[in-house]
């Protein structure tokens, strides 16, 4: 009996939830945890988020990991030379190679379909903007000048795509949804 929730804790829970906790079997620790969780002004927002909104939060939370992989890709620089004997043209090439990467899942899985649709949208919208905002105007101009704009590298580099879609796969797995990342060089 010494470890049960105090009248003040029960009153706080009532004020937050409008549910009578006077006859509930509740320890002080459980009551404190509920007060902290339910009293958080963002709690209702967290509870009512859609799967795609949760995915965006997850991707933002893990953005630095993806960005570190992007930096690894940007450090890979080479020159592509036209295969012709006289005056061959040369182009700069940045990254590990152009790839096509996508998610594979059971097609009748509506939650997986929602995650896939949101992942494709966020890849070329929210997360791409976060990626581009990490660079100065001077850096943007440099990549444009060498013929490899950052937008193109973000969209095409297989390493960057894999990093992004593995994060989406990790999120899906945390929700009990089976998805597989499929990738090939283009």
User: How many helices does DSSP assign?
Assistant: 10
Name the structural class.
mainly alpha
- The neighbouring-strand order within the major sheet is 1-2
Task: Please tally the β strands and state the result.
Answer: 4
Mean pLDDT: 91
Strand content: 5-15%
Structure write-up:
This protein is mainly alpha-helical and 186 residues long. The protein folds into two domains: 40 residues, no CATH class; 137 residues, no CATH class. It has ten helices and four strands. The strands form two sheets. The chain has a two-stranded antiparallel sheet. Strands 3-4 form a two-stranded antiparallel ribbon. A hairpin with an 8-residue loop joins strand 1 and strand 2. Helix 6 packs antiparallel against helix 10. The radius of gyration is 25 Å and the shape is elongated.
What's the short story on this structure?
By secondary structure, the chain is mainly alpha-helical.
Features:
mainly alpha; two-stranded antiparallel ribbon; 2 domains; 56% helix; single chain
Please write out the topology.
Layout: H1 7-17, H2 28-39, H3 43-47, H4 51-61, H5 63-74, E1 77-81, E2 90-94, E3 99-104, H6 110-123, H7 126-132, H8 137-145, H9 150-156, H10 158-174, E4 180-185
Antiparallel strand pairs: 1-2, 3-4
